[in-house]
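Our consortium's second objective concerns turning raw sequence data into structural hypotheses that experimental partners can test. To show how far this objective has progressed, the report includes one record in full. It was chosen at random from the queue rather than selected for favorable results. The single chain below, 239 residues long, was entered without modification.
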Amino acid sequence: MTSTLNADPAELAKFSELAHRWWDLDSEFRPLHQINPLRLNWINGIQPLQGLKALDVGCGGGILADSMARKGADVLGIDLSSKALKVAQLHALEAQTPRVEYREVSAEALAAEAPAQFDVVTCMEMLEHVPDPASVVQACADLVKPGGWVFFSTLNRGAKSFLFAILGAEYVLNLLPRGTHEYAKMIRPSELARYARHAGLELHDTQGMEYNPITQRYWLSADTSVNYLFATQKPLSAA
């Protein structure tokens, strides 16, 4: 393992400042709460979570981790933001969420410590915030058991995503704080597919996510030009 942490201090600081608002449904994190049922049902539809051991990489305040635990999984959420993790832990206590724990550790460090320990690994809305997304993808592949599933979601890099995800969401509609995303860090589906393939993961399903600002409704579709999700699986032969 390298001694350099695969994290951007500015990104950690940015989300740490907002940590106390993770579970405020009218805060900057409202879009995550709105899309969470979509991504949770998509994951659970491909791989039912009941009774499985799941890991949420870049869990933040625990929105997805908490919901996966309520679907019956034993969940570990990891992040490098101490403040966000404290909020996640406090919410788990207040909401009496069963079977969820949180740790401040990087995906790479946990992969070295506990390889092939999870049935399901999720890494949602996180890859576009780290210096080396391929390293995170490799760590996720190392953490999942042979036959297990790794789910990713991120932002495409292109003219439409710049218009919708940055100008629209951050500057016009104020859905997200300005500066939440950097265009250069967005990842094309072809790039993420390459990272996954190099990590030994097989791509099984791709979904796009769209948003109507008038109805304020999100839905999954075949349009991956802005937000998209990947379902990948580690072959059993990787044992």
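The partners drew two points from this record. The beta strands are 53-57, 74-79, 100-104, 118-124, 144-155, 202-212, 217-221, 227-233. The CA atoms of residues 116 and 145 lie 4 Å apart. Both points have been shared with the crystallography group to help prioritize constructs.
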